[in-house]
Amino acid sequence: MGSAGAFVDSESDRGTPDRSGLDIEWTVVDADAGPEPFDRCVGSLDTAFVVVTPDTLDTVSAYEEIATGYDTDLFLIVTRMRQADRELIRAFDGPEVAEYVYEDAAIPRAMEADEIPTLEDRTVEAVLIEALQPDRLEPDAALDALEARRRSVVNVEVTDRSQADAVMNMFENAGHLTAYYGCNCTYHDGHVLARMP
């Protein structure tokens, strides 16, 4: 998984989850920075995430060109994000942003101490759901999309864990696989993903 995995929690590190989950297996590969290392490994990837800051958005086009040549989906993770950068990111003409990581004083403090900073309440899976299904649906519309086989995976934002449990129960009662992933987004607490068995 590489050193980036140490920055966030992984569901697999927490023991057996309460629910059966999505029964989807993914492998996270942490590549060295730069277009050349990316070019060496991109052929074996279905999806790639490029980590940038608002000041380094101009470097993304090199990664985008490489990913296009391999037909690999490419998403951005923007770190050192500030509220003042939101319009710049919205106006950026490039890959879709999968996650924002806002500036946090704990990160530079940990790096100065030569320690790996931890980002509480973030999971590797919460970023990967963007690759599975970036579009968010309301619960009823998501269930309809699965039942009509218009989507094989759906993504529902939830405001708290009790809403997540209710949405998961709705999908499970209809015979679908479900999983909950927490996130640090401003207006919601997490995501419920569901898929056809």
What does this structure look like?
The chain is an alpha/beta fold and 197 residues long. 31% of the residues lie in helices and 20% in strands. The chain has 7 helices and 6 strands. The protein has helices spanning 35-41, 60-70, 86-91, 106-112, 124-132, 139-147, 161-173; strands spanning 47-52, 73-81, 96-102, 153-158, 177-182, 190-195. A 3-stranded parallel sheet has the order 1-2-3. A hairpin with a 7-residue loop joins strand 5 and strand 6 (190-195). The chain is globular.
Keywords:
3-stranded antiparallel sheet; 197 residues; globular; 31% helix; alpha/beta
Q: Topology of this structure?
A:
Elements: H1 35-41, E1 47-52, H2 60-70, E2 73-81, H3 86-91, E3 96-102, H4 106-112, H5 124-132, H6 139-147, E4 153-158, H7 161-173, E5 177-182, E6 190-195
Parallel strand pairs: 1-2, 2-3
Antiparallel strand pairs: 4-6, 5-6
